[in-house]
Amino acid sequence: MMILSVEYLAISWLTLLINYALNPTINIHQVLTKMPHLEKPKLDINNRQDMMKLTSIFVHPIANSNLDISVKDFGAVGNGIVDDTKAIQSAIDAVSESGGGVVFFPSGIYKVSINPGKSKAITIRANIILKGFGNKKSIIKLADKQGNFDAILAGERLDSNILNFAMYDLAIDGNGTNNPVRNKSDLLKKGMRYSLRIYLGSKIDIERCRFINQNNTNSITVNNDEGFLSDVKIKNNIFELIGGGQIDYDHSTIYTHGKRIEISDNYFSSRHGAGTYGARTAIEIHGDEHIVRNNTINGFTNGINVTGVASSSHNQLITNNFIKDAHSGIVIWSKSYKNKSDKYALNNCIISHNKITINVDGWRKLWGDDPSAGITLEPDSDAPFKNLEIIHNQIYFTKLLKNGRTGDSLANGIRMWRSDFPQVESENIRIIGNKIENSLAGGIYIYMPIRQGEISENTILNPGKSNGKFHDDYRAGILVSGDLNQVNINNNFLIDNQVTNTLKLGIISFANCINRCEAKGNSLQISSGAKLKIFEFKSHKNNFEI
After folding, report:
1. pTM of this prediction?
2. Run of H or E residues at 264
Protein backbone atom coordinates (compact mmCIF):
# COMPACT_ATOMS: atom_id res chain seq x y z
CA MET A 1 0.00 0.00 0.00
CA MET A 2 1.04 3.60 -0.46
CA ILE A 3 0.60 7.06 0.89
CA LEU A 4 -0.11 9.78 -1.68
CA SER A 5 0.58 13.41 -0.85
CA VAL A 6 -0.71 15.81 -3.50
CA GLU A 7 -0.09 19.53 -3.24
CA TYR A 8 -2.17 21.85 -5.33
CA LEU A 9 -0.14 24.93 -5.96
CA ALA A 10 -1.00 27.98 -8.01
CA ILE A 11 2.22 28.92 -9.77
CA SER A 12 2.55 31.85 -12.12
CA TRP A 13 3.88 31.30 -15.60
CA LEU A 14 6.74 33.67 -14.78
CA THR A 15 7.67 31.82 -11.58
CA LEU A 16 7.59 28.52 -13.39
CA LEU A 17 9.84 29.78 -16.17
CA ILE A 18 12.39 31.34 -13.79
CA ASN A 19 12.49 28.52 -11.22
CA TYR A 20 12.28 25.54 -13.51
CA ALA A 21 11.92 25.89 -17.26
CA LEU A 22 14.89 28.26 -17.49
CA ASN A 23 16.89 26.26 -14.97
CA PRO A 24 16.20 22.57 -15.56
CA THR A 25 18.71 21.49 -12.89
CA ILE A 26 16.28 22.59 -10.18
CA ASN A 27 14.33 19.76 -8.58
CA ILE A 28 10.75 20.74 -9.38
CA HIS A 29 9.36 18.82 -6.40
CA GLN A 30 11.61 20.80 -4.06
CA VAL A 31 10.50 24.04 -5.67
CA LEU A 32 6.86 23.11 -5.29
CA THR A 33 7.08 21.89 -1.72
CA LYS A 34 8.83 25.08 -0.57
CA MET A 35 6.05 27.27 -1.86
CA PRO A 36 3.14 28.11 0.44
CA HIS A 37 -0.29 26.69 -0.18
CA LEU A 38 -2.36 29.13 -2.18
CA GLU A 39 -6.01 29.40 -2.89
CA LYS A 40 -6.86 28.68 -6.50
CA PRO A 41 -6.81 32.11 -8.15
CA LYS A 42 -9.22 33.55 -10.61
CA LEU A 43 -7.31 33.35 -13.86
CA ASP A 44 -7.00 36.49 -15.97
CA ILE A 45 -6.84 35.04 -19.47
CA ASN A 46 -5.40 38.29 -20.83
CA ASN A 47 -2.38 38.24 -18.51
CA ARG A 48 0.59 36.24 -19.82
CA GLN A 49 2.09 36.26 -16.32
CA ASP A 50 -0.99 34.55 -14.93
CA MET A 51 -1.20 31.55 -12.68
CA MET A 52 -0.95 27.94 -13.76
CA LYS A 53 -1.78 25.07 -11.47
CA LEU A 54 0.71 22.22 -11.48
CA THR A 55 0.80 18.98 -9.54
CA SER A 56 3.55 17.30 -7.58
CA ILE A 57 2.81 13.69 -6.79
CA PHE A 58 4.63 11.73 -4.11
CA VAL A 59 3.89 8.02 -3.78
CA HIS A 60 5.65 5.93 -1.15
CA PRO A 61 5.12 2.31 -0.05
CA ILE A 62 4.17 1.81 3.56
CA ALA A 63 7.13 0.22 5.35
CA ASN A 64 4.96 -1.95 7.59
CA SER A 65 2.69 -3.32 4.88
CA ASN A 66 0.16 -5.83 6.13
CA LEU A 67 1.87 -8.67 4.30
CA ASP A 68 5.11 -9.17 2.39
CA ILE A 69 5.37 -12.51 0.62
CA SER A 70 7.28 -14.15 -2.21
CA VAL A 71 5.62 -15.70 -5.23
CA LYS A 72 7.87 -18.70 -4.59
CA ASP A 73 5.97 -19.29 -1.35
CA PHE A 74 3.01 -20.15 -3.59
CA GLY A 75 4.87 -22.48 -5.92
CA ALA A 76 6.39 -20.17 -8.54
CA VAL A 77 9.61 -21.58 -9.98
CA GLY A 78 11.01 -18.71 -12.06
CA ASN A 79 13.05 -20.82 -14.46
CA GLY A 80 11.40 -19.59 -17.67
CA ILE A 81 10.09 -23.09 -18.43
CA VAL A 82 7.46 -23.89 -15.83
CA ASP A 83 4.26 -21.85 -16.17
CA ASP A 84 4.02 -19.66 -13.05
CA THR A 85 0.71 -17.96 -13.83
CA LYS A 86 -1.37 -19.71 -11.17
CA ALA A 87 1.28 -19.32 -8.47
CA ILE A 88 1.62 -15.59 -9.10
CA GLN A 89 -2.14 -15.13 -9.09
CA SER A 90 -2.46 -17.05 -5.83
CA ALA A 91 0.14 -14.82 -4.19
CA ILE A 92 -1.61 -11.64 -5.35
CA ASP A 93 -5.00 -12.90 -4.20
CA ALA A 94 -3.65 -13.89 -0.78
CA VAL A 95 -2.11 -10.46 -0.18
CA SER A 96 -5.25 -8.74 -1.42
CA GLU A 97 -7.49 -10.76 0.90
CA SER A 98 -5.27 -9.82 3.84
CA GLY A 99 -5.82 -6.12 3.16
CA GLY A 100 -2.84 -5.46 0.93
CA GLY A 101 0.93 -5.59 0.92
CA VAL A 102 3.94 -6.60 -1.15
CA VAL A 103 4.18 -9.48 -3.62
CA PHE A 104 7.88 -10.12 -4.14
CA PHE A 105 9.51 -11.69 -7.19
CA PRO A 106 13.00 -13.06 -6.44
CA SER A 107 15.48 -13.25 -9.33
CA GLY A 108 14.14 -15.42 -12.12
CA ILE A 109 12.12 -15.56 -15.32
CA TYR A 110 8.45 -16.12 -14.52
CA LYS A 111 6.61 -17.54 -17.48
CA VAL A 112 2.93 -16.56 -17.70
CA SER A 113 0.21 -17.47 -20.16
CA ILE A 114 -3.10 -15.90 -21.16
CA ASN A 115 -6.31 -17.21 -19.62
CA PRO A 116 -8.55 -17.44 -22.71
CA GLY A 117 -11.70 -16.85 -20.66
CA LYS A 118 -10.35 -13.57 -19.24
CA SER A 119 -8.09 -12.56 -22.15
CA LYS A 120 -5.31 -11.73 -19.68
CA ALA A 121 -2.59 -13.52 -17.76
CA ILE A 122 -2.53 -11.88 -14.31
CA THR A 123 -5.33 -10.08 -12.47
CA ILE A 124 -4.02 -7.16 -10.45
CA ARG A 125 -5.84 -5.77 -7.43
CA ALA A 126 -5.99 -2.69 -5.23
CA ASN A 127 -3.54 -2.15 -2.36
CA ILE A 128 -0.83 -4.31 -3.95
CA ILE A 129 2.86 -3.66 -4.61
CA LEU A 130 4.50 -5.95 -7.16
CA LYS A 131 8.21 -5.80 -6.43
CA GLY A 132 11.21 -7.48 -8.02
CA PHE A 133 14.87 -7.88 -7.16
CA GLY A 134 15.82 -5.66 -10.10
CA ASN A 135 14.43 -5.07 -13.56
CA LYS A 136 17.14 -7.21 -15.18
CA LYS A 137 16.79 -10.03 -12.68
CA SER A 138 13.06 -10.41 -11.96
CA ILE A 139 11.22 -10.91 -15.24
CA ILE A 140 7.60 -11.76 -16.00
CA LYS A 141 7.67 -13.22 -19.52
CA LEU A 142 4.71 -14.01 -21.72
CA ALA A 143 4.72 -17.55 -23.11
CA ASP A 144 5.06 -18.21 -26.84
CA LYS A 145 2.14 -18.20 -29.26
CA GLN A 146 -0.51 -16.64 -27.03
CA GLY A 147 -2.56 -15.30 -29.93
CA ASN A 148 -4.71 -12.20 -29.48
CA PHE A 149 -5.34 -11.04 -25.93
CA ASP A 150 -6.31 -8.01 -23.90
CA ALA A 151 -3.51 -7.64 -21.34
CA ILE A 152 -0.71 -9.33 -19.46
CA LEU A 153 -1.62 -7.45 -16.27
CA ALA A 154 -5.07 -5.90 -15.75
CA GLY A 155 -7.92 -5.62 -13.26
CA GLU A 156 -10.62 -8.26 -12.78
CA ARG A 157 -13.12 -6.18 -14.76
CA LEU A 158 -12.91 -3.06 -16.87
CA ASP A 159 -14.40 -1.10 -13.93
CA SER A 160 -12.20 -2.64 -11.21
CA ASN A 161 -10.89 0.17 -9.00
CA ILE A 162 -7.12 -0.28 -8.85
CA LEU A 163 -6.41 1.98 -5.88
CA ASN A 164 -2.96 2.11 -4.24
CA PHE A 165 -1.14 -0.03 -6.79
CA ALA A 166 2.58 -0.05 -7.50
CA MET A 167 5.19 -1.91 -9.52
CA TYR A 168 8.88 -1.62 -8.66
CA ASP A 169 12.04 -3.23 -10.03
CA LEU A 170 10.31 -5.72 -12.34
CA ALA A 171 10.55 -6.50 -16.04
CA ILE A 172 7.61 -7.37 -18.28
CA ASP A 173 8.76 -9.25 -21.38
CA GLY A 174 6.04 -9.27 -24.03
CA ASN A 175 7.99 -11.89 -26.01
CA GLY A 176 7.04 -10.03 -29.17
CA THR A 177 9.18 -12.16 -31.46
CA ASN A 178 7.13 -15.24 -30.57
CA ASN A 179 3.85 -13.33 -30.40
CA PRO A 180 3.98 -11.37 -33.65
CA VAL A 181 1.34 -9.02 -34.99
CA ARG A 182 0.24 -10.82 -38.16
CA ASN A 183 -2.18 -8.11 -39.31
CA LYS A 184 -3.94 -5.06 -37.88
CA SER A 185 -7.01 -7.10 -36.96
CA ASP A 186 -4.88 -8.77 -34.28
CA LEU A 187 -5.15 -5.53 -32.31
CA LEU A 188 -8.91 -5.01 -32.38
CA LYS A 189 -11.34 -5.24 -29.47
CA LYS A 190 -9.94 -7.80 -27.00
CA GLY A 191 -6.73 -8.08 -29.00
CA MET A 192 -5.33 -4.74 -27.82
CA ARG A 193 -2.29 -6.36 -26.17
CA TYR A 194 -1.54 -4.15 -23.20
CA SER A 195 1.27 -5.06 -20.85
CA LEU A 196 -0.39 -3.15 -18.01
CA ARG A 197 -3.92 -1.80 -18.30
CA ILE A 198 -5.82 0.22 -15.68
CA TYR A 199 -9.15 1.87 -16.51
CA LEU A 200 -10.14 3.01 -13.02
CA GLY A 201 -8.03 3.94 -10.02
CA SER A 202 -5.74 6.38 -8.26
CA LYS A 203 -2.45 6.45 -6.35
CA ILE A 204 -0.63 4.39 -8.96
CA ASP A 205 3.16 4.24 -9.03
CA ILE A 206 5.28 2.48 -11.69
CA GLU A 207 9.01 2.94 -11.10
CA ARG A 208 12.30 1.30 -12.08
CA CYS A 209 10.59 -1.29 -14.24
CA ARG A 210 11.55 -2.56 -17.70
CA PHE A 211 9.11 -3.29 -20.51
CA ILE A 212 10.77 -5.20 -23.34
CA ASN A 213 9.85 -7.00 -26.58
CA GLN A 214 6.57 -5.15 -26.84
CA ASN A 215 4.28 -5.69 -29.84
CA ASN A 216 1.29 -3.96 -28.29
CA THR A 217 -1.23 -1.26 -28.97
CA ASN A 218 -0.04 0.33 -25.71
CA SER A 219 2.48 -0.95 -23.17
CA ILE A 220 1.15 0.99 -20.16
CA THR A 221 -2.40 2.34 -20.33
CA VAL A 222 -4.01 4.29 -17.51
CA ASN A 223 -7.15 5.53 -19.17
CA ASN A 224 -10.49 6.86 -17.98
CA ASP A 225 -12.29 9.68 -19.79
CA GLU A 226 -14.91 10.16 -17.06
CA GLY A 227 -12.57 11.58 -14.42
CA PHE A 228 -12.08 8.40 -12.39
CA LEU A 229 -8.34 7.97 -12.85
CA SER A 230 -5.84 10.21 -11.11
CA ASP A 231 -2.61 10.58 -9.17
CA VAL A 232 -0.22 8.49 -11.25
CA LYS A 233 3.56 8.44 -11.43
CA ILE A 234 5.46 6.58 -14.17
CA LYS A 235 9.13 7.21 -13.52
CA ASN A 236 12.59 5.78 -14.17
CA ASN A 237 11.37 2.95 -16.34
CA ILE A 238 12.93 1.42 -19.47
CA PHE A 239 10.94 0.60 -22.60
CA GLU A 240 13.02 -1.19 -25.21
CA LEU A 241 12.63 -3.34 -28.31
CA ILE A 242 9.28 -1.68 -29.02
CA GLY A 243 7.49 -2.62 -32.24
CA GLY A 244 9.12 -4.33 -35.19
CA GLY A 245 7.89 -6.87 -37.69
CA GLN A 246 6.23 -6.29 -41.05
CA ILE A 247 2.94 -4.69 -39.91
CA ASP A 248 2.60 -1.09 -38.81
CA TYR A 249 -0.14 -0.32 -36.30
CA ASP A 250 -1.25 2.38 -33.90
CA HIS A 251 0.74 2.31 -30.68
CA SER A 252 1.52 4.45 -27.65
CA THR A 253 4.08 2.98 -25.27
CA ILE A 254 2.58 5.04 -22.45
CA TYR A 255 -1.02 6.20 -22.88
CA THR A 256 -2.68 8.27 -20.17
CA HIS A 257 -6.12 9.80 -19.81
CA GLY A 258 -6.73 11.26 -16.39
CA LYS A 259 -5.47 13.98 -14.08
CA ARG A 260 -2.44 14.63 -11.88
CA ILE A 261 -0.08 12.40 -13.81
CA GLU A 262 3.70 12.51 -13.95
CA ILE A 263 5.76 10.74 -16.64
CA SER A 264 9.43 11.39 -16.02
CA ASP A 265 12.96 10.06 -16.43
CA ASN A 266 11.94 7.13 -18.61
CA TYR A 267 13.95 5.67 -21.51
CA PHE A 268 12.29 4.50 -24.75
CA SER A 269 13.84 2.75 -27.76
CA SER A 270 12.17 1.09 -30.73
CA ARG A 271 13.36 -2.24 -32.08
CA HIS A 272 15.03 -0.93 -35.25
CA GLY A 273 15.29 2.83 -34.74
CA ALA A 274 13.86 5.24 -37.30
CA GLY A 275 11.37 3.47 -39.54
CA THR A 276 10.33 0.78 -37.04
CA TYR A 277 6.81 -0.47 -37.70
CA GLY A 278 4.53 -0.34 -34.68
CA ALA A 279 6.61 2.31 -32.87
CA ARG A 280 4.12 5.12 -33.41
CA THR A 281 4.28 7.17 -30.22
CA ALA A 282 6.32 6.90 -27.03
CA ILE A 283 4.04 9.03 -24.80
CA GLU A 284 0.46 10.18 -25.38
CA ILE A 285 -1.36 12.25 -22.78
CA HIS A 286 -5.00 13.28 -22.35
CA GLY A 287 -6.48 15.24 -19.46
CA ASP A 288 -5.47 17.72 -16.79
CA GLU A 289 -2.28 18.40 -14.87
CA HIS A 290 0.37 16.33 -16.60
CA ILE A 291 4.12 16.66 -16.10
CA VAL A 292 6.19 15.00 -18.86
CA ARG A 293 9.87 15.64 -18.27
CA ASN A 294 13.38 14.26 -18.66
CA ASN A 295 12.36 11.36 -20.88
CA THR A 296 14.69 9.98 -23.57
CA ILE A 297 12.96 8.71 -26.71
CA ASN A 298 14.73 7.00 -29.63
CA GLY A 299 13.21 5.93 -32.95
CA PHE A 300 9.46 6.59 -32.70
CA THR A 301 7.23 8.16 -35.36
CA ASN A 302 6.06 10.72 -32.78
CA GLY A 303 7.95 11.32 -29.59
CA ILE A 304 5.10 12.82 -27.56
CA ASN A 305 1.44 13.45 -28.39
CA VAL A 306 -0.04 16.29 -26.32
CA THR A 307 -3.76 16.02 -26.81
CA GLY A 308 -6.87 17.98 -26.09
CA VAL A 309 -8.91 14.88 -26.85
CA ALA A 310 -10.56 14.82 -23.43
CA SER A 311 -13.38 16.49 -21.53
CA SER A 312 -10.69 18.82 -20.16
CA SER A 313 -6.96 19.16 -20.93
CA HIS A 314 -5.57 21.94 -18.77
CA ASN A 315 -2.18 22.63 -17.19
CA GLN A 316 0.41 20.50 -18.94
CA LEU A 317 4.18 20.82 -18.71
CA ILE A 318 6.34 19.04 -21.30
CA THR A 319 9.97 19.87 -20.60
CA ASN A 320 13.56 18.67 -20.89
CA ASN A 321 12.75 15.62 -22.99
CA PHE A 322 15.31 14.31 -25.49
CA ILE A 323 13.70 12.97 -28.66
CA LYS A 324 15.93 11.42 -31.33
CA ASP A 325 15.30 9.96 -34.80
CA ALA A 326 11.63 10.93 -34.84
CA HIS A 327 9.36 11.66 -37.77
CA SER A 328 7.79 14.41 -35.64
CA GLY A 329 9.00 15.29 -32.17
CA ILE A 330 5.97 16.68 -30.32
CA VAL A 331 2.49 16.65 -31.85
CA ILE A 332 -0.34 18.79 -30.46
CA TRP A 333 -3.85 17.43 -31.04
CA SER A 334 -6.54 20.08 -30.49
CA LYS A 335 -9.80 18.37 -31.26
CA SER A 336 -13.43 18.43 -30.18
CA TYR A 337 -14.49 15.85 -27.63
CA LYS A 338 -17.67 14.72 -25.94
CA ASN A 339 -18.65 16.50 -22.70
CA LYS A 340 -15.93 19.12 -23.05
CA SER A 341 -16.26 21.70 -20.29
CA ASP A 342 -15.18 24.69 -22.41
CA LYS A 343 -14.45 25.48 -26.02
CA TYR A 344 -10.67 25.18 -25.66
CA ALA A 345 -9.27 21.74 -26.34
CA LEU A 346 -6.04 22.69 -24.56
CA ASN A 347 -5.53 25.43 -21.99
CA ASN A 348 -2.27 26.32 -20.22
CA CYS A 349 0.38 24.17 -21.84
CA ILE A 350 4.15 24.74 -21.69
CA ILE A 351 6.48 22.93 -24.11
CA SER A 352 9.98 23.97 -23.08
CA HIS A 353 13.66 23.00 -23.24
CA ASN A 354 13.11 19.84 -25.26
CA LYS A 355 15.85 18.62 -27.63
CA ILE A 356 14.46 17.09 -30.80
CA THR A 357 16.24 15.43 -33.73
CA ILE A 358 14.20 14.70 -36.86
CA ASN A 359 15.29 11.88 -39.21
CA VAL A 360 13.28 12.29 -42.41
CA ASP A 361 15.14 9.67 -44.45
CA GLY A 362 14.57 7.00 -41.81
CA TRP A 363 10.79 7.35 -42.02
CA ARG A 364 10.33 7.82 -45.79
CA LYS A 365 9.40 4.20 -46.43
CA LEU A 366 6.65 4.24 -43.82
CA TRP A 367 5.29 7.79 -44.11
CA GLY A 368 6.15 8.81 -47.66
CA ASP A 369 5.33 12.47 -48.33
CA ASP A 370 3.77 13.15 -44.91
CA PRO A 371 5.78 16.18 -43.74
CA SER A 372 7.91 15.90 -40.63
CA ALA A 373 8.17 18.63 -38.00
CA GLY A 374 9.90 19.28 -34.72
CA ILE A 375 6.83 20.59 -32.88
CA THR A 376 3.56 20.60 -34.78
CA LEU A 377 -0.18 20.99 -34.56
CA GLU A 378 -2.07 18.00 -35.98
CA PRO A 379 -3.37 19.57 -39.22
CA ASP A 380 -6.99 18.41 -38.93
CA SER A 381 -7.40 19.82 -35.41
CA ASP A 382 -10.87 21.38 -35.22
CA ALA A 383 -10.89 23.04 -31.77
CA PRO A 384 -9.11 26.15 -30.47
CA PHE A 385 -6.47 26.17 -27.76
CA LYS A 386 -5.38 28.86 -25.35
CA ASN A 387 -2.22 29.80 -23.43
CA LEU A 388 0.31 27.71 -25.32
CA GLU A 389 4.01 28.32 -24.68
CA ILE A 390 6.63 26.81 -27.03
CA ILE A 391 9.87 28.12 -25.58
CA HIS A 392 13.59 27.39 -25.63
CA ASN A 393 13.40 24.12 -27.54
CA GLN A 394 16.21 22.88 -29.79
CA ILE A 395 15.13 21.27 -33.05
CA TYR A 396 17.60 19.73 -35.49
CA PHE A 397 16.98 17.94 -38.80
CA THR A 398 19.58 15.34 -39.76
CA LYS A 399 21.18 15.67 -43.19
CA LEU A 400 18.80 14.66 -45.98
CA LEU A 401 20.66 12.05 -48.04
CA LYS A 402 17.83 11.08 -50.37
CA ASN A 403 15.98 13.29 -52.83
CA GLY A 404 13.59 15.83 -51.43
CA ARG A 405 9.86 15.73 -52.12
CA THR A 406 7.07 18.19 -52.71
CA GLY A 407 5.64 17.39 -49.27
CA ASP A 408 8.82 18.73 -47.69
CA SER A 409 7.34 22.22 -48.13
CA LEU A 410 5.74 21.71 -44.70
CA ALA A 411 8.69 20.04 -42.98
CA ASN A 412 9.18 22.89 -40.50
CA GLY A 413 10.86 23.20 -37.16
CA ILE A 414 7.63 24.50 -35.62
CA ARG A 415 4.38 24.23 -37.57
CA MET A 416 0.96 25.51 -36.50
CA TRP A 417 -1.14 24.67 -39.57
CA ARG A 418 -4.88 24.01 -39.66
CA SER A 419 -5.47 22.36 -43.02
CA ASP A 420 -9.15 21.46 -42.55
CA PHE A 421 -10.35 24.18 -40.16
CA PRO A 422 -8.39 27.32 -41.11
CA GLN A 423 -10.87 29.72 -39.41
CA VAL A 424 -10.53 28.28 -35.88
CA GLU A 425 -8.88 30.96 -33.74
CA SER A 426 -6.54 30.22 -30.83
CA GLU A 427 -5.52 32.64 -28.11
CA ASN A 428 -2.32 33.62 -26.28
CA ILE A 429 0.29 31.69 -28.27
CA ARG A 430 3.97 32.32 -27.53
CA ILE A 431 6.81 30.84 -29.59
CA ILE A 432 9.96 32.24 -28.02
CA GLY A 433 13.66 31.45 -27.81
CA ASN A 434 13.67 28.27 -29.88
CA LYS A 435 16.64 27.18 -32.00
CA ILE A 436 15.82 25.44 -35.28
CA GLU A 437 18.52 24.05 -37.54
CA ASN A 438 18.43 22.50 -41.05
CA SER A 439 14.66 22.28 -41.38
CA LEU A 440 13.68 21.00 -44.83
CA ALA A 441 11.30 23.93 -45.29
CA GLY A 442 10.92 27.17 -43.31
CA GLY A 443 11.87 27.33 -39.67
CA ILE A 444 8.46 28.41 -38.33
CA TYR A 445 5.18 28.14 -40.24
CA ILE A 446 1.93 29.59 -38.89
CA TYR A 447 -1.31 29.07 -40.80
CA MET A 448 -4.19 29.79 -38.44
CA PRO A 449 -5.89 32.76 -36.76
CA ILE A 450 -4.30 33.93 -33.51
CA ARG A 451 -5.56 36.42 -30.95
CA GLN A 452 -2.59 37.68 -28.93
CA GLY A 453 0.68 36.02 -29.75
CA GLU A 454 4.44 36.33 -29.79
CA ILE A 455 6.98 34.84 -32.20
CA SER A 456 10.20 36.29 -30.88
CA GLU A 457 13.87 35.67 -30.15
CA ASN A 458 13.99 32.45 -32.15
CA THR A 459 17.18 31.43 -33.95
CA ILE A 460 16.66 29.76 -37.31
CA LEU A 461 19.76 28.37 -39.00
CA ASN A 462 19.98 27.10 -42.59
CA PRO A 463 16.30 26.35 -43.27
CA GLY A 464 14.96 25.17 -46.64
CA LYS A 465 17.35 22.21 -46.92
CA SER A 466 15.11 20.00 -49.06
CA ASN A 467 15.73 19.98 -52.81
CA GLY A 468 12.09 19.03 -53.36
CA LYS A 469 10.13 21.04 -55.90
CA PHE A 470 8.13 23.68 -54.05
CA HIS A 471 7.94 27.47 -54.03
CA ASP A 472 10.74 29.43 -52.39
CA ASP A 473 8.19 31.16 -50.13
CA TYR A 474 8.18 27.91 -48.15
CA ARG A 475 11.93 28.28 -47.60
CA ALA A 476 11.51 31.49 -45.58
CA GLY A 477 12.83 31.67 -42.05
CA ILE A 478 9.31 32.43 -40.78
CA LEU A 479 6.05 32.29 -42.75
CA VAL A 480 2.75 33.46 -41.25
CA SER A 481 -0.78 33.37 -42.63
CA GLY A 482 -4.28 33.79 -41.24
CA ASP A 483 -6.02 36.56 -39.27
CA LEU A 484 -3.68 37.89 -36.60
CA ASN A 485 -4.81 40.11 -33.74
CA GLN A 486 -2.10 41.62 -31.50
CA VAL A 487 0.68 39.33 -32.69
CA ASN A 488 4.35 40.35 -32.56
CA ILE A 489 7.20 38.91 -34.63
CA ASN A 490 10.21 40.51 -33.00
CA ASN A 491 13.94 40.01 -32.50
CA ASN A 492 14.30 36.75 -34.41
CA PHE A 493 17.71 35.72 -35.76
CA LEU A 494 17.61 34.26 -39.28
CA ILE A 495 20.95 32.86 -40.40
CA ASP A 496 22.29 31.02 -43.44
CA ASN A 497 26.03 30.32 -43.18
CA GLN A 498 26.31 28.04 -46.22
CA VAL A 499 28.24 28.64 -49.43
CA THR A 500 24.95 28.32 -51.31
CA ASN A 501 22.07 29.63 -49.25
CA THR A 502 18.93 27.55 -48.87
CA LEU A 503 17.18 30.29 -46.89
CA LYS A 504 15.29 32.27 -49.55
CA LEU A 505 13.40 34.92 -47.56
CA GLY A 506 13.58 36.28 -44.05
CA ILE A 507 10.00 36.64 -42.84
CA ILE A 508 7.06 36.42 -45.22
CA SER A 509 3.50 37.37 -44.28
CA PHE A 510 0.32 36.30 -46.01
CA ALA A 511 -1.49 37.25 -42.82
CA ASN A 512 -4.24 39.80 -42.29
CA CYS A 513 -3.31 41.86 -39.27
CA ILE A 514 -6.60 42.76 -37.61
CA ASN A 515 -5.12 44.89 -34.85
CA ARG A 516 -1.69 45.99 -33.57
CA CYS A 517 0.91 43.65 -35.02
CA GLU A 518 4.66 44.24 -34.90
CA ALA A 519 7.69 43.00 -36.80
CA LYS A 520 10.67 44.72 -35.23
CA GLY A 521 14.28 43.98 -34.42
CA ASN A 522 14.59 40.91 -36.64
CA SER A 523 18.01 40.24 -38.18
CA LEU A 524 19.09 38.39 -41.31
CA GLN A 525 22.64 37.06 -41.92
CA ILE A 526 23.52 35.43 -45.27
CA SER A 527 27.11 34.24 -45.74
CA SER A 528 26.73 33.58 -49.47
CA GLY A 529 26.26 37.28 -50.20
CA ALA A 530 22.72 36.82 -51.55
CA LYS A 531 20.51 39.87 -51.08
CA LEU A 532 17.30 38.82 -49.37
CA LYS A 533 14.43 40.78 -47.89
CA ILE A 534 14.12 40.69 -44.13
CA PHE A 535 10.34 41.10 -44.29
CA GLU A 536 7.93 40.78 -47.20
CA PHE A 537 4.18 41.37 -47.15
CA LYS A 538 1.95 39.42 -49.50
CA SER A 539 -1.38 40.54 -48.07
CA HIS A 540 -3.30 43.78 -48.61
CA LYS A 541 -4.07 43.95 -44.89
CA ASN A 542 -0.61 43.84 -43.43
CA ASN A 543 -0.90 46.62 -40.81
CA PHE A 544 2.39 45.48 -39.27
CA GLU A 545 4.51 48.04 -37.48
CA ILE A 546 8.03 47.59 -38.81
Report:
1. 0.89
2. strand 252-264
